[in-house]
Amino acid sequence: MAPKTLPFFLTLLFLLQLHSSAGQNAVRAAYWFSDSGFPVSDIDSTLFTHLFCAFAGLNPQTNRVFIASGNQAQFSTFTRTVQQKNPSVKTLLSIGGGDAKATDFDGMASQAGSRKSFIDSSIRLARSNNFHGLDLDWEYPSNTTQMTNFGLLLAEWRVSVASESRRSGNTPLLLSAAVFRSSDYYTINYPSSAVSKGLDWINVMAYDFYGPRWSSVTGPPAALYNPGTTESGSYGITTWIQAGVAANKIVLGFPFYGWAWKLAHSNNNGFFAPAVGPAISKDGDVGYAEINSFIAKNGARALYNSSFVSNFCYSGTTWIGYDDKESISAKVTYAKNRGLLGYFAWHAGADDKWALSRQAASAWGA
Ligand SMILES: *[C@@H]1O[C@H](CO)[C@@H](O)[C@H](O)[C@H]1NC(C)=O
Ligand SMILES: *[C@@H]1O[C@H](CO)[C@@H](O)[C@H](O)[C@H]1NC(C)=O
Predict the structure, then answer these.
(1) Does residue 19 surpass a pLDDT of 80?
(2) Would you list the domain boundaries of the chain?
(3) 96 Cβ partners below 8 Å, 6+ apart?
(4) What tens digit of pLDDT does each residue of 89-116 get?
(5) What is the pLDDT of residues 171-197, one digit of tens each?
(6) What is the DSSP string of 190-208?
(7) Residue 199 clears pLDDT 90, i.e. is over it
(8) Backbone angles phi, psi at 69, to 5 degrees
């Protein structure tokens, strides 16, 4: 190489490196949920930078994290399987979830000894099953003591992860947590400084604002905007930033499922229409692929509301609020413009031939 071109070459190399490290710092993620029955090998991992394997459990007697025996085969091969299509995708073992008992986490976090059991067992489990990280899904720490203990847990987890990395010589495990939509859980504040220091990022669950089991009217279940209310993704993200968590540690969550209501009157079929309970499934939750089948089968009318950033469809007395491509695009664009670290979806197996995952990746510019 001629000496004159060397500086140019080095500059280029430097820029390329900057570019690739910026790429690694984005999170374009989805959870895979074992109960969905969706085969891990069918995940199009090329559309994601990170995949969460959900869920590991917490044993309330031992305070150790465990993988249920029925999940062991899929979980232990998860990383290898998803890396077949995308060798650089990173995987995190997610612990807890909406169906886990919050009191088990509360009990574990309340004593130094049980926090240590949780932490040590989680790290061992992540390493022995080849995950790149751990994700805590405690729904939710719900009083000030629990929030303080949640903060202690994160701080101690971070110290242990760093020391394990020094001992083993391996890259430190990633640490994330799925958190409530806003920086307070019904006025009880999260310990935002411990959250910032302890975690690589937070997954903000900006959905389930309205649903047929707790809303007597239809509503935009995962609105990005809903002025004058706290029921929106933008409201929640703003509270997290105001609480002091940097935008580039925040990942915006959206659902690959909707909520179905049974309308009180078929001719009153907009937002905030009176409803009499769930439709389609027991609780009214319905995956995106199923929503598309419902629309096709019933010739349902499907609309997008750009004020809320929410899709909805209806046929007869069945009304579904959900995120279609327009909503996903608008949310990803919002995340990007606000300088957030990225986005995640719950859950991969509910997508319809990867339409939403692909839409999200392309809106991010991936
Ligand atoms: C928080 O909840 C725990 C367990 O439910 C309870 O033991 C504790 O006293 C509560 N603390 C406060 C401050 O309410
Ligand atoms: C969205 O829905 C709300 C409530 O029905 C309505 O006021 C608003 O005009 C709609 N926005 C758009 C763009 O359709």
Answers:
(1) no
(2) 27-208+223-256+324-364
(3) 55, 56, 57, 58, 105, 136, 137, 138, 139
(4) 999 999 999 999 999 999 999 999 999 9
(5) 999 999 999 999 999 999 999 999 999
(6) --HHHHHHH-SEEEE----
(7) yes
(8) -60, -35
Using the mean position of ligand 1's atoms as its centre, give its distance from the Cα of residue 165 in Å.
Answer: 34
Alpha carbons within 13 A on the beta-carbon side of 217:
9
Residue 325 burial (CB < 10 Å; 0-12/13-18/19+)?
Answer: middle
The answer on pLDDT for 1 being more than 80 is no
Contacts of 87 (CB under 8 A, 6+ apart): none
- Binding site membership of 305 for ligand 2 (Cβ less than 6 Å): yes
Query: Ligand 1 mean position to 219 CA, how many Å?
Result: 33
CA distance 141 to 190: 8
Asked whether the beta carbons of 358 and 258 are under 8 A apart, the reply is no
53, HSE (Cβ side, Cα atoms, 13 Å): 33
Is the CB–ligand 1 distance for residue 146 below 6 Å? Answer: yes
Q: Rounded distance, CA 171 to CA 166, Å?
A: 9
65 Cβ contact list (under 8 Å, min separation 6): 56, 57, 58, 59, 95, 118, 121, 122, 125
Query: Per-residue DSSP letters for 94-160?
Result: EEE-TTS-HHHHHHHHTSHHHHHHHHHHHHHHHHHTT-SEEEEE-S---SHHHHHHHHHHHHHHHHH
139 is catalytic: yes
The Å distance, Cα 110 to ligand 1 centre, comes to: 10
- Do the Cβ atoms of 28 and 47 come closer than 8 Å? yes
Which residues, other chains included, contact 270 with Cβ-Cβ below 8 Å and sequence gap of 6+?
Answer: 218
**Distances in Å between the alpha carbon of 26 and those of 20, 87, 324, 349?**
10, 16, 23, 22
CATH: 3.90.1490.10, 1.50.10.10, 3.40.250.10, 3.20.20.80. Which one for 27-208+223-256+324-364?
3.20.20.80
* 111 ligand 1 Cβ < 6 A: no
